[in-house]
Amino acid sequence: MRSLREVFFNYLYMSIGTNNESSLHRDLKFQYAGLDGKTETEVAGFVADCVNAKGEYIEIQTGSFAPLKKKALALNGRLKVIHPVIITKYIEVYNKKGKKQYRRKSPRKGQQWDLFDVLVYAPELPNIQGLVIELVLVDVVEQRVQDGKGSWRRRGVSISDRQITATHDRITLKKPSDYLRFIPYKKNEKFTSALLAKKAGISVDLARKTLYVLTKLEIVKKTGKQGNSFIYVIKGTRD
User: Fold this and answer.
1) Alpha helices in 120-230 (DSSP H)
2) Taking a C-beta distance cutoff of 8 angstroms, is the pair 123, 70 a contact?
3) CA-based angle 55:85:109, to the nearest 5?
4) What is the pTM of this model?
5) pLDDT for residue 237
6) In this structure, which topology does domain 177-239 adopt according to CATH?
């Protein structure tokens, strides 16, 4: 086991060149690496965020899953993808001098179905044998700076950092059949994207993304149409 001193200097060394990395990403990386793990590990021509003492290669992915396919295949599925889902977000806005202007709570509340906002770009990724996706449900504080360099949607305010303030749960998805948890219906029950949205408490757009991915994973299938909407049923379980 490495000493705390070695862990500290590994942390310090690997922080060089990762100044654009958010605290959320960095904290999860070191948390999953553990005391005996390593960060920024080169393997099969790629760099994994970390590898733990068990030899698991781990990637912290906050955005689209599309870039992960080549890496997962190169590692023969020996990859664990950690995706943080922000349940509650507080926003702190600072001026250019670093003085806090105000703090507010975002009205949006995240949930496990948010996975499909990013998985929709790589819908068959969970079919890669050995690959694991783990959702980490967290609360965060998002720090913003009024520097005029940010998105026009935020009127020029830049996001400077995101920090985890609480962790609620972890959901591990190891095989296609684990994705049945996202369909709150029994076998042979028929439903549409609108019905799924209502029952799950999500938007119709997110329900459509969910069903698109689960159709690709052969968890659900289309059985017909009701007006302009497809009708779905659970297809079965695949391990």
Assistant:
1) 193-200, 204-216
2) no
3) 170
4) 0.85
5) 58
6) Arc Repressor Mutant, subunit A (1.10.10)
